[in-house]
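Worked problem 6 (solution included).
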Amino acid sequence: MAAYSPEKMEWSGKGGARERFFCMTAEPGACFEEELQSLMDRYCDLGGGEEDEFLLRFHVSDPVRQEEELRRVVGERNSYVSVVGQPPANGARVAVEAWHIGGILEKRRKTEQGGTVVTVRMPRYQLFLAGRRMASAADSRGQMQEEFRWLDRVAALHGGTVPDLVHRTWIYCRDIDNNYRGLVEGRNERFARYGLTPESHFIASTGIEGCTETTARLLHMDSLGIVGLKPGQIRYMEAPEYLSPTHLYRVAFERGTRIVYGDRSHYFISGTASIDAEGNIVHSGDVARQTVRTLENIRALMERNGGSLSDLKQAVVYLRDGADRDLVSRALMDSPLAGVPHLLLKAPVCRPGWLVEIDGIAVNGAGEDAFDPL
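Solution. The predicted structure is:
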């Protein structure tokens, strides 16, 4: 059996600043509606679902059948709700992750040409989460370009451009072994159009197996944007002696992005695997050692950017083979992630040799007085 990990973690800062993170997995064995209702009851008991709820992302076993029921049980919410076909590795039908931000002055949820945008207004910044709910192109390359063209409109509505405002994406790819190359090509082409290069930097991202309720849809992207940042607040996270820049193997995303405010830093860790400084897979075939190396890579990214692995407030662990759950869980329990809310999901990584991938969000008090607090 997998070991216990907390389901909720809170960060508190000066002046009453607060953020809360949840990662919760249903107990297996019931029908979807019962598992979901029980999970939502636990979430509410822990303080979830209040006005400071920003992100609510569900990972389900069969979105084609479950999407409608999920929307009915969860109800209308003024937060960003994402549904991804990525079954929990414990055999349950549903898991959830949530991000709450204290101090929100106003929250707006609106439909924008086939997608959803949720914007929260803070005293000095605006944060938005955005995602499209449709696709018309026939292949993953075309659908990736459609996602970014739609995001261009969202950024324009917030007074900027994708390169200026968007700092984190989560891209879910149906049948990743066949469709990931198209995802990469479509994203590379859009980034070239934006003028993004390894020197000017890309966007932190996870590209992982996942699907929606629409079977013809090969890609779905959730995007986080921030309005009001000044030069110097965005720091690109690197640890080149541990893991290579992504452009060495012809993909375009940042290993992680740190956003520095006056009162805190946010760290958005991209999907990270067991990779070395030359871009090679480390510990081929050994999922436990790959987990350890993946955590070493994340630790290196954090420590070179004013943080530590223990600053993680939530993480998602993606497994190529759900049967590896107990091996991976034991490795996690011997690391700082034992005390961090996290999910274990069955979701193959972009390269078949990678058996595990981890992404996450970290928060700490490493702010800088030159910038406004969040």
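Discussion: The chain is about 25% helix and 30% strand.
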